[in-house]
Amino acid sequence: MLLVFRLIGESFRFAWDALRQNKLRTSLSLLGITIGIFIIIGVFTGVDTMRNKIQASVDKLGSNTLFVQKWPWIFGDSYPWWKYVNRPEPSYRDYLALRERMESAKGVCFEISSGSRTIKYRSSSVEGATINAATQEYDQTWNLEFENGRYFTESESKSATPVCILGAEIAEGLFGSAEPIGKQIKVMGRRVTVVGVFKKEGEDMMGMSQDKNVLIPMSLAKGIFDVNNERYNPQITVRGKDNISLEEVESELKGQMRAIRRLSPGQEDDFSLNKTTMLSNQLDIMFSAVNIGGWIIGGFSILVGGFGIANIMFVSVRERTNIIGIQKSLGAKSYFILLQFVFEAVVLCLMGGLCGLFLVYLLTLAASGIFDMPVVLYLNNIILGIGVSVGIGIISGFWPAYSASKLDPVEAIRS
């Protein structure tokens, strides 16, 4: 153990001497390592931040939730829209049948939405609001948090009571700091009473937020517009019970939908069952491609830096040949000489890698301030950067170190 510490200490001293005595040559070689680590870890940090933000958005949909819709969540250039364009939209009738039949579901909800609406309260108005209408089970299929007030009662949902729940931005735009609960606002020409306000969420990476939404009961919406019309994006949301797997829920839902639509065994489905794993898989594919790009670009810089470090180590061996001869003549083993130069190469690479990590850290601070979004240099990326630096140091320093360990002590001293 003492030998290892001694080797590391000497290696730091020799590496520092190389950097101090040959500033330009060593700095240029370290620059390749610095840029390579900066690119690789910078890309990984950005990808991890984006992935976590988007995954948080996806998680809002629920890991055990399925969406019965006309169009599937397919991504790519070759989207076969002609296969789906003539499909019927999920209907209120489908919802009623599923609600009666689904045994593995915790909640089955029918939803529609209408965007770009204006909400008014006396002289105040908010534009660009989205009107969401849903059946009573909406709170069972979505995770709702309230800043103030409550959810609809069952009697309100059944009797088309003119009530609504506001998103935080809508409530702030209409009432400011005043109490919104119990006030009457105008929604699509109808006066409705505010019974609740959702907790402020802030817009996420996928644009999903309740902040600009107004939720009304489905029974009320039926008297305002056609709830089965395609332009209102009707969908049925099904959340499975906690003790039942998503695959079981999906299997039952598919069977029940085929029965409701009266599809024969040979017919294709005329509906889509979308789920969050479809989004997660697409994200994994996309971010994997970005990570590979980061490795390729950063790899070239690291390769150049590795050759530079190897060159420095060969020069260092040549300059210290007589010292190596003296060490060997005093009894130093070959492995001691080899480790000494390998550690020196590792230390040099670590200097470059730490500089790269420091630049990434500065970048995360700048990005967090500019984009008002927390960008974090995760520990696993720091460990990866240090690990890559150590690996490059071992690879680039091994051959010079090996050639130094094989020197004849007499010839080395005479040189």
TrEMBL record:
Could you list this entry's UniProt keywords, alphabetically sorted: Cell membrane, Membrane, Transmembrane, Transmembrane helix
Q: Which residue ranges does UniProt annotate as crossing the membrane?
A: 28-47, 292-314, 335-363, 375-399
Record keywords: Membrane included?
yes
Q: Name one GO cellular component term.
A: plasma membrane
Q: Which InterPro entries match?
A: ABC3_permease_C (IPR003838), MacB_PCD (IPR025857), Macrolide_Exporter_MacB (IPR050250)
GO MF terms, alphabetically ordered: transmembrane transporter activity
- Per its UniProt record, what Pfam families does this chain match? FtsX, MacB_PCD
Recorded protein name is: Putative ABC transport system permease protein
Instruction: Please tell me the species this chain comes from.
Output: Pedobacter xixiisoli
